[in-house]
Amino acid sequence: MSALWRINLWVTVFFALVAVACATLLLHQATADVQRELQSAESVVHYLRETAERDPTSLQSRLTGSLRHVRVHWLAPGESAPAKDPGLQAWLGRQLLADGPAAQMAVLQDGRRAWIAVDPRDEIDEILDSLAQLFGVCLMALLVSLLVIRWAVRRGVRLLDELLHAMRQVSAGDLQVSLRTAGVSEAQQLAEHFNRMTAALAQTRADNARLTQALLAVQEQERTRLAQTLHDDLGQYVAGIRARACLLRLVIHQPPALEQTAHELEEHCDHLQRGFRALVHDLYPVVLQHLPLGEAIGLLARQWQDRHGIACQLRVDGASPSISASGKAHLYRLLQEALTNIARHANASQVRIRLQHRSGRLRLLVRDNGRGARQPARAGVGLHSMAERARSLGGELRIISQPGAGWALALNIPLETS
Predict the structure, then answer these.
(1) Which terminus of the chain is more solvent-facing, meaning fewer CB atoms within 10 Å of its CB: N or C?
(2) Does residue 162 lie within any of the structural domains?
(3) Residues with Cβ within 8 Å of residue 124, at least 6 apart in sequence
(4) Nearest CA to 148 among 319, 11, 2, 288?
(5) Which domain holds residue 61?
(6) Same domain, 38 and 95
(7) Which range, of 58-67, 115-124, 188-197, 222-231, averages the lowest pLDDT?
(8) In whole angstroms, what is the distance from residue 12 CA to residue 23 CA?
(9) Is 61 a domain residue?
(10) 265 and 332 in one domain?
(11) Do 229 and 322 sit in the same domain of this protein?
């Protein structure tokens, strides 16, 4: 059932209840009035009987026909009393008077008999007319109300239908749908918010597609770099080690050459080991498995400072918190990505890192004194990856940058308390 039909049903039920209540009050008042009228008519019945017995001419039809609430019925020979009227009005009359309408038999001097009784039909007709008028007025008011409601909500229902159709299109993947910003102010606001929502969804989908392509490109670059490292660097040292190992058989009786070859093998193995360590560190920070979080971050800061020649100050407030391995990895990679962005884009000479652990929350602050820049309208792969890592940690990431004021990164993470 639609909303309009439900509103119509509620209004109809309301009017029905009001009509029943009004009819009940009307019947209650009318019953009291009719009973008073009929009780007054009983005295008329007594008067007519006494008068007719003294003067039969007083019961002429032209005199009794205009009487209200009194009926005169001439009895046939052998007839004791007229049969009860089976109609609705007679039944209502018997209900109005507990003992039934008052009636008396008048025996005239000429031998005729007349049945004189109270007749409530006129009063009952008035009650029925009043009820008919009441229900007619209520029905007319109901029809007018339903028409007014339909006219008033027609635009709203049309807007809801348009919104439902648009939502179905959005669910089907069509984000180019939009609503007309026309009509009443509420409809305009709803249409504007819906259009902004679809525009934001379309922009988010485009950004996700762009970031997915960028991530795939970065993944391919990492694979290419890994392959080049294994082939050009580590592969060459492995080939050199193999060549020196074959040379050992030839110089085994030449101590100077043997010593030189062993020394070269040692250097190749050392280069190979350092290359593998750097490669493994790029793939996963092994130091997180052996060092607390604060010490691992300190080692990262020193290595980054030695590699890029940018002064890096680290301050750790409080003991290192207990955090899961995946959480430590996300935090470490986030800081690593932030330092990489500083080295590439900030043109800074100093970086300050602060790690705070207070009141069940962990806060990481990173700030440089570089040139800064206005935040881009669309986050790149680096900023997007940091935001995703912060979301994985259940924290809030804020990045503030102004031209000439450097970059500032603030990460606030809630920690689980045991």
Answers:
(1) C
(2) no
(3) 34, 89, 92, 93, 96
(4) 11
(5) 3-142
(6) yes
(7) 58-67
(8) 16
(9) yes
(10) no
(11) no
**What would the mean pLDDT of 249-270 be, rounded to a whole number?**
76
Q: Is 66 a residue whose pLDDT tops 80?
A: no
Q: Which of 280, 376, 285 is nearest to 334 (CA)?
A: 285
Dmax over CA atoms of the chain, in Å, equals: 176
Rg (CA), the chain: 52
Q: Do 360 and 258 belong together in one domain?
A: no
Does the pTM exceed 0.85? no
Is 164 within the bounds of a domain?
A: no
**Residue 245: pLDDT above 70?**
yes
272 in any annotated domain: yes
Nearest to 21 by CA among 134, 143, 139: 134
What distance in Å separates the CA atoms of residue 223 and residue 139, rounded to the nearest whole number? 81
Amino acid letter, residue 262:
A
Banded model confidence at residue 107, pLDDT cuts 50, 70, 90: low
Query: What is the torsion angle, in degrees rounded to the nearest 10, for the CA atoms of residue 188, residue 191, residue 193 and residue 197?
Result: -170
- pLDDT per residue as tens digits for the range 16-58: 998 899 888 887 787 777 767 666 666 666 777 777 666 766 6
User: Which pLDDT value is given to residue 258?
Assistant: 73
Q: Tell me: do 308 and 344 sit in the same domain.
A: yes
Question: What is the total residue count of the chain?
Answer: 418
Residues 195 and 294 in one domain: no
